[in-house]
Every structure is written in C-alpha cells, then in structure tokens.
Amino acid sequence: MKYEEYAYKLMELARDSILIRYRYFDIALASTKPKATFGTACFFYEAGNICFDPIYLLRRYKDEEHIAVRAYMHIILHNILLHGFDVNKLDMDCWSLAADIAVENIILDMDFSAAAMSYDDEERKIIEMLKKNIPVFTADRIYRYFKTVGISEEAREEYERLFSLDRHIEWNRQIDNEDKKDEIIITKEDWERISRRIKTEAMEFSKNKKLADDMKDNIDYAIRKRYNYRECLSHFMVMNEEMTVNDDEFDYIYYTYGLDTYGNMPLIEPLEYKEDKKIKEFVIAIDTSASCSGEIIRKFLVKTYDILKNEESFFNKINLHIIQCDDRIQTDTKIEDKSDFDKYIRDIKTKGNGATDFTPVFEYVEKLKDNNEFKNLKGLIYFTDGYGTFPDKVPDYEVMFAFLYEDMSRPKVPGWAMQVVMEDELYEY
To answer: How confident is the model at residue 89 (pLDDT cuts 50, 70, 90)?
Structure first.
C-alpha cells in the first residue's frame, strides 16, 4: 500500500531529523524503531517500537506537517524520563497528563523548527501559568500540584487536547500483565543508562542552557534512587527476648507424643521466650517550621504508625520520644505502647512555625541519654523539608532524614545519615 510506505518514510525522516539536530539522542533513537499498527488511530510506544497508524498519521500530516517529528520526540522523551515505569499506585489519568505536559515543555525549549506545531503558543501560555506554582517543572511535581490543588474538568479537557499526543498503552500493560514482561525489549535499567548518558551529553554539548537545565532536572528526578520507607525503618530494630512460645524451635511431635503416651505429660515443654528483631527505643523528630504543615505531619506519623503498629515491629513496651521542633525544642511526648501512639495521632497539635535548625534536637537527645532516659537508643528519624543546619558531631546511633519532597538544591546530608524522600509515600492518590 502506497500510503503505508509514505507513512513509514515520514517516521524514518522524523527519526533522522532528530538525530541530525540532537546527536545525544542517538542511543535512544537506535533503541527504537517505527512500527505500523492499523486501526489504532493514535501513536504509542510498545516493546521498543514507536507505533503509529499510517492512515491516522497521514491525515494529521495534512494539517500539521511536523506531526511525525513531534510524536517521535514526545514518545522518546517519555521513555528517557521513565514516565511509564513504577506508576501502579498513581492516578493514571492525572499522571499521563502531567507526563505529557513535562515532555511538551522540553520540546518547546528545544526550539526545534522541524517539530513545531500550530498550537505551540497555546501550550506556552499554559506552561508559563503552571510554572508560577511549579518552579521545578517535572512530571512528578506537575502531578503533585494537580492532585493537591486540583484541576477543573474544563482545564483538564483543554490540557489533554493540547498536550496529549500519544496513548500510554504500554504503561498500563506493564502494570497489569506481569506475565508479558518478557516481551519488553528495553528494560527500565536500559532506559536509565540511556538517560544518564543523554543528561551528561546534553549538559556538555547543548548550546541551549534552558533546554539543558530542563533535561537535567527531569532526568535527575527520573533516575534518583528511591528508598522504601518500610525497609529503612528496619535499621531501628534491635534483638530482644519476649515471653512468647517460640514456634520455630518447638517440636510438636514430641510434645503430643508425651501427652498421648503418658497421659497429659509432655516430653518437651515449649520455650516461653524467643529472640526477635523489633523496634524498642528510638526518636521521631518533627520539623514544625513554616514549610511543614500540620496535615502533612499527620500523614507522616500515620504512615510511620501503620508500618510499626503490627506485632512484627513493636515490642509490647517501647520507649519512643516524638519531638516537635523548629529552631528549638517545642514539645517532647513519650510513647510507651500502642495506645499512647493511638492517642498522639488522634489528638496531635503542632507547635512551631519558626526557622529550621537540626542541632537542638541532637543536643536534646544527648541530654536524655545522659539522664538515662534511653538504655539502648537505636536511632532517630527526622521528618523535615531539609533546609536547616546539620550538627557537626556524629551521633552514636542511626539517623534518617525523611524529606517531604525531592529537592536538588537543598543542603547536602552528612555521610553518617540515611535519607529517604517521602513524596511518593505521602502522595499516594
């Protein structure tokens, strides 16, 4: 069919146009190829293929001569920025729109005449308006803004009309069809390697500083190492004996044999204690400076409590101090069991709203240790926005800074402390 040949030529020319202008996209372009998919009436990515409906492409081409280049670039950027991975906990419609806006912003920054569309100025106006409230313009931040502030149905329809150029079929398939994962030619790890190389080369060779900065911000955000908060809490666990039947070391065969043979006289008694790794003594410090709202603090505590309150994590008796602080200690509440934690969550009131300084908390904890308030303090979790003064002295217990959101410009965390970003944990919509 001639129209299929024409459509393929358009897509191949689009790929070559991108490669000639932006050499650092070579590995991303080499990792994909155009594929005709009749009857789909859309563009989409699937298993290493840039899929297109030839008839749909040619009809769009009549009105927008650069549609093939724009669609190719749009889909490639989704993959470079890992937009289709690890999104099973997200509102997919909202995430798709946020990701589309993020990649269209980068394409506009390219100022690439071969990818220009008739509606570019409309997109620019919307992006300029959004950037007033979203300084770091990544898909994650756009998504969080929409979910926090909200978006009207009218605005959503307008944004989708302008920014949504492809269907995200592959994204949903990766989530729902685990048995088909072997069909995916390029893995997430492959795209991460591609992303790192593109970031390096874009920063080194691009003459467009705005584009290079946008690429860096988006790629840094995409490939950042994510830590699971639940796993991080395991660092605060200690070994201890508890009065309970040790099922792992108790032999029920000898026990029941004795009962049957000798009449209610077991040959072996169950051990009435066992060693277990649980959380017993630690500190939660809460930054109550102006940047951390009461609702976000409550969400963090609920998240922490939900992880800890099961029997696998809590000893029957614990020694937990929840300290509210900004640039000084505001409150210190001692938690000794689950009922205390329940009450604290239910009745929580925050005090502070001053500046942020981390050192008073560490000094205060040292005083508690000197007063024998702790026998074996395992660690301290500090929930904060990250903009504060870190202590010079290295504590003799584990420290984890739980940041509200990712921010490349915040002060560097000392090497002796762990860090985890709670953004994904606290914004599961």
So the answer is: low
